[in-house]
Records
---
Amino acid sequence: MARTHRLGNIFNRILLLIFGGAIVACAAIFSLVLQRNAEAELASKALLFLDSMNAVRNYTSNQVKPLLEPQLGEQFLPQAIAAYSARSVFESLHAKKEYADLTYKQATLNPFNPANQADGFEADLLERFRTEPANKQLSGFHTREGAEVFYVARPLVVTQPSCLACHGDPQKAPASLIDRYGSEHGFGWKLGQTVGVHIVSVPAGVPIATARQSFFWFIGIAAVVLAAVIVAINLLLKRTVLRPLSQMTAAAEQISKGRLDFEMESTASFEMKALAAAFERMKRSVVRSMRLLQSVHYDRGRALLAAGDLDGAIQELYNVLNVDPDCVAARVDLARALVRQGRSQEAIAQYNEALRLAPEDPHIHLELGALLLEQGEQAVGLNSRS
Ligand code: HEC
C-alpha cells in the first residue's frame, strides 16, 4: 500500500508544480493585461479631456481674441485670454458632481494667476520636459490628496511671438493687465521656452479596483478548475493504475509465499487487463513447475527412505515441505524417517503438524499413538486418538 501511495504523491507533486507554475505565469500575464487595459481606458479619458481644453484655448485665441483685441488697451477683458477661458470652462465642468474628481491645470513656475502656480509634482514634470525636449507627453499614476489618479501632461511651449505681447516685457504689456495682475509675475517668457505643463488627471480608483476584482475572480476560478482537475486525475489514477497495481502486488506476494489458489480480479483498462492475464499465465506456469519439483523431491525422498538412506531421505522430504508445507504424505514420510533415526521429538512434531492438516487420517493417529506409547507417554497417546 505504501508504494501505491508514493506513486500518487509523485503524481500530485508534479501536477501541483505544473499547475502552480501555470497559475503564477497566467496570473502575472493577466495582471499585466488588466493593468494595461485600465491604463488605456484612463488614458483615453484623460486625453479627450486635455484635447477638449486645448480646443477651448484655440477657439479663444483664434476667434475671440481678434475681436476683443482693440479694446484691450483701455479695458482688461479676460474673455480674450485663452488660459482664462480654458480655466473657466474647466471650472464650470468641475462644479458638476460627476466631474468633481477631474483636474485641469496650466501650471507654470511664474504665472499671472496664482491658481496656476506649479506644485512640486508639476515642477518635476516641467523639468523633465525641459531636459527631454523630444518628450511630448508624460502619463502615469499619481497620488493626489490621498486618492490615486491617472495623469496626462504635455509641455507648454511659447511657440508664437504674439504671446510675448503680454508675457514678455512688463513695460510693453497692456496697462489694464498690469492693473489687474501687477508687474511682478507672469512676465519674462522667451520664444521657444518651455514655461509650464498642461496637466489633466482623472480618478483611477474605480478602474483599478475593477481590474483587481477581475484578477481575483480569475485566480479563484483557475484555482477551483485546477483543483477539480487534480481530484479527477487522482480518481482516474486510482481506478486505472493504483488499485490494479496494488492487487497485482498482493498477487505477487501470494505467489512468493507459495499460495497459488487465488484468482486475479478483472480491471477496466486494456493495459491492466493484459498485465493481469500475463500474471495469471505466470502463476499457472509457477504452479506447474512447483508441482513438478515437488514430485521429483518426493519420489527421490521415498526411494532413499526405501534404500535406507535416512539422511538423504529427510533432506529430500524437507525440500518437498519447503515447496508445499501442506503436503501431508511428505510430512508423514518425514516423521517415519525421523523415527527410524531415533529423533522421536522431531517426529512427534511432524505427526502433530500432519494431524493438524488431516485430522481425520487414522494412519497418522495410529503411528503417532504407537510412537508415544513407545515413549511411555500413554496418556497423551490415548488422548490424541480421541
Ligand atoms: C493679451 C495678453 C495675453 C496674451 C497675448 C497671452 N496671454 Fe497668456 N495669460 C494672460 C493672462 C491675463 C493670464 C492669466 C489668466 C487667468 O487669470 O487665469 C494668462 C495666463 C496664461 C497661462 C497660465 C499661467 C498664468 O500665467 O496664469 C499660460 C500657460 C499662458 N497664459 C500662456 C500663453 C501663451 C502660450 C500665449 C501665446 C499663445 C499667451 N498666453 C498669450 C494674458 C495673455
Note: The CA atoms of residues 296 and 320 lie 9 Å apart.
---
Amino acid sequence: MRGPFIGVVVVVLAAVACLLQVDAAAEEDNRARDISERIDKLTAEAFKLGRNLDARLDPIRIKKAGTLKARVDAIAEPTCDEHEYQCGGDDPQCVGDLLVCDGITDCRNGDDEKHCVLPFAKGDTFVGDQEFDHCGRFNPDHITLHIDSVTTIPFFTSHPKVTGRVDIHVDRDDDWAVSTPSFGFYSFATHRIIFRTPDKDSLYLVAQFDGYNFDRFVGETLRVGTGLPCARFIYKRQH
Ligand SMILES: [Ca+2]
C-alpha cells in the first residue's frame, strides 16, 4: 500500500514542480516584455529630446527668436540713457556706446566685448523695398546699397568706418538710375550704420539692424535738422 501511495506523491510533486517552472518561465517572459517596452519608451523619449535640442540649436530658429526679442525690447521702456549700452542678463548695467567692442571688458558680465564680429563686408549688397518715400522727386520702388569698404580705425574700434554707394532706380524707358557715394560709421552698440550722404538735399540714411538677423535692416532717410524720416525701405541682403 505504501509503495503506490509514494508513487502518487512523487508524480504529484513532479507535476507541481513542472507547473512552478512554467509559472517562473512565464513570469520571466512578462518581466522581459516589460523591460523591453520600457526601453522602447525611453528610446523614443531620447529621440524626441534630441529632436527638441536640435530644434533649439537651429540657427534659423535662434535668429527668429532674437528678432522677436529685439521687437519686444524696442517697445519696452529703455533702461539705459541715450548713447549707453545695456549689458543684459540678470545684472543690469549700462556702459557708454563707445566702450562696446573697444577691446576692454567694461560690463561685469563681459557682454560689451562678446559680439564684435562685423555683420557685413566689402562687396555686400542690400536691396530695399519701399514702405514710404516723400523725400524727393524720384519716389523709387527700390534702393540698392553696395558696401565698398569697411575699415576699423585704431582707438575707435567701436565704430568702424563704412563706405558705399546708394543706387536709386527709377522706372523709365531708359532705366535711369542715380548712384550716390556715401560714408558713415557702424555702431556695435546700436547695430546701426549712419551714412552721411553728401547731397544737396541734406538727407542722411540710417541703416538699423535688429542685432540678430543681419540679412535685413530698416533703412530710413532723415532730414538734417529735423531728424524726421521722409522715407523708409526694408533692405534685404542679396546672396
Ligand atoms: Ca569695452
Note: The mean pLDDT is 83.
---
Amino acid sequence: MTSNVPVPKVKLPMQAIGAKIFHSVNIISLFLMLTSGLQIYNANPVFGGRAGLHIPPIFTLGGWLAGGRHWHFAAMWLFSLNLLWYGIYVLITRRWRRRFVGVNDLKALQKTQNSRRLAYAWHRIIYTTIIPILLLALLTGLGMYKPAQFPWIVDMFGDWQALRIVHFSSVPMVVIFTVLHSLLGRKAGGSQLTESMFW
Ligand code: HEM
C-alpha cells in the first residue's frame, strides 16, 4: 500500500557560497591541468625518455605537445587566480581558524570512540592536505614556466630533472587526494555533505 504522506526533504548542511565557487572551479581547473600536463609529459616522458612510459590518449588533452601546452598555460590562469582569491577569502573571513584541521581533530584521532567523529577528523586532515599540494604544483610549475626569472626555484629542487619529477608528482597526489577526499566526505557526512559543496 502506498502512503500519501510527503517524504520530508533532508536538510543539506550550509556551505558558504565562496567555498562552493572555489571548489567547483578548482575541480574544473585541476581536470584541465592534469590532462593537459599528461599530454606534455607524453612528448618526452620524464621516466625513460621518448621510449618511456606513455599515458593513453583518453587521459590526455590537447592532441599533441603544442596543444597540451596551450591548454596547460591557459588553464594555469584559472587554477592560480582561483587559488589566489580563495587564499584572500580564507584570510578575510578568518575561515583558516576553523575550516582546516586543528588540535581537536588530532585529539579525536587518539581519544574518540565515536566512529563518525573519527571519520570527520580524517576528512579534515585529508582535505587540508590539498592546500600544500596545490601550492607545490604552483611553485614547481612557475619554476618550469619562467626559469630565467625564478632560477632559485630550479635550484631549490636541485636541477631541472628533479623539478620535472616533483611537478609531475602533483598528478598522483591529486588523483589519490580526490579518491580519499570523496570517500571520507561520504563517510563523514553522507551524500548530503558532498552535494552541499555544489548546490
Ligand atoms: C595540480 C596542477 C598541475 C598539474 C597536475 C600539472 C601537471 C603537469 C604535468 C604532468 C606536466 C608534464 C611534466 C613533464 O613531463 O615534464 C606539466 C608540465 C608543466 N607545467 Fe604543470 N601541472 C599543474 C599546475 C601547473 C601550474 C600552476 C603551472 C604554472 C604556474 C604549470 C606549469 C607547467 C609547465 C611550465 C610545464 C612544462 C611545459 C613544457 O615543458 O612544455 N603547471 N604539468
Note: The chain has a mean pLDDT of 93.
---
Amino acid sequence: MKRQQELIGVLLDLGLSIQASSVYPESHQRVQELLARLHNRLQAETGRLNVLHIGFLGDHAVIDEFPFLGLNPTLDRLIRKMRERGIEKISFREGITPGELKRFVYFVGGGRESGAEHRWECINYGKIQGVSEDEAPMSVLSSQPSRSHVLLGATDVLKNLLLSMAGEGKGTKVSEGRDIVAAVMKGLRKEGMLIDTLIRLQSHDDYTVTHSLNVCVIVVAQAVHAGFPEASVQEIGLAALLHDIGKEMIPAHILNKKGRLDTEEFERIAEHPVIGAKLLRKIECGSDLPMIVSFEHHIKYDRSGYPDVMFGEAIHPASYMTQIADVYDALRTYRPYRKSLERETAVSIMKEGRGTEFEPKLFDDFLDLLG
Ligand SMILES: [Fe+2]
Ligand SMILES: [Fe+2]
C-alpha cells in the first residue's frame, strides 16, 4: 500500500496546490508550503522514474500506471479541473525546479493565460491522442497488467460519511455512499468476481470502515450474481455499506477490546443493529433498506442471533446476504485477537451453518460465487 500512498500524495498535493493558486497570491504562505511539499514529492518520484506520467481520463487519474477513481473530493476536483483545461496527461521530468512547478500550477489554476506563453523545461502536458474514454486508462500509459485500485480513497470518504451520519443524523446526505457503491460495482465489473483481490485492497485503521467496505463488495457481488437489476444492486450495496453504522455509537474500548467480552460488553455491542436502524430512520437514504438491513443483519436463519424477533417473521434477502458477507469477512480478516483464516478454512467453518445460521439458497449462491 505504501507505493499507492505516495502516488496519491502527489495527486492530492497537485490538486491542493492548484486549488490554493486560484485563491491566494504566489507569495502566500499556504501556497508556498503546498508547492514545496509537491516539489519534494516530484523530486523523489522523478529521481526514481526519470519521468513521472500522470493521465486524466473520464473519472480516473492514472499515475505511474496506478488508476485512482476520484472518490476523494480533492482528487475529484483535480480531475474536473484538468478536464476543464483540456489536459489529459502531464509528465514531470527529473530536474524540475520550484519556479517551473509554480508557473505550471498557476497556469492551470488561474486559467487566464495560455500555456504557449511559457517555455516548459521539465513539464509536458496535453491531450492523449486517439484514445477513447472507454479504454482502460492504464493501457494508455503502459502495457503493464492492470492493478486495480479503484477503491483507493474510498475508506476515508466512508469514515467521514459514517461519522457525519452518526454525529448529525438528520439531514445528512448519503450521496457519497452511493458513489462508493458505484465504484464497487465498477471495480467488480473490471475485476470479474475476484472478491478476495478486491477486498484486500481496502485498509483503514478503523476496523468498521474496512469491514463495511469489504461487506459491501461481497454483497454487491452476491446481488449481481443473483441477477438483481442494477438499481436494486445499488440499494442493496448501500444497505450493506451502512450495515454497521450503529457501531459508531459503541465506545471504542469495547469495540476494539482484544480479549473476550464480558456479558455487559457483549450486550452493548449487540445493541448496534437497533442503534443503527434508529439512526438510519432519521436519514434520507432513498429507501428503507439500509434501516432494515442494519436491524436484521445479526438475525440468523433459525432466528437465533440478535435482536430477538418472532419466529416466522420474514427477513429481507439483503439482510441474509449481508449476514453471510459479514461472517465471511470477519473470518478472513486479521484481528488483534485472532489470525485471519484462509478462504478454504473460512468456507468450511461457514458450511456448518448452512440452513441454521445462513439461509441455504443464498448460502449456496455465495459458495458458487466464491468459486
Ligand atoms: Fe454488525
Ligand atoms: Fe458487520
Note: Confidence is low (pLDDT under 50) at residues 129-148.
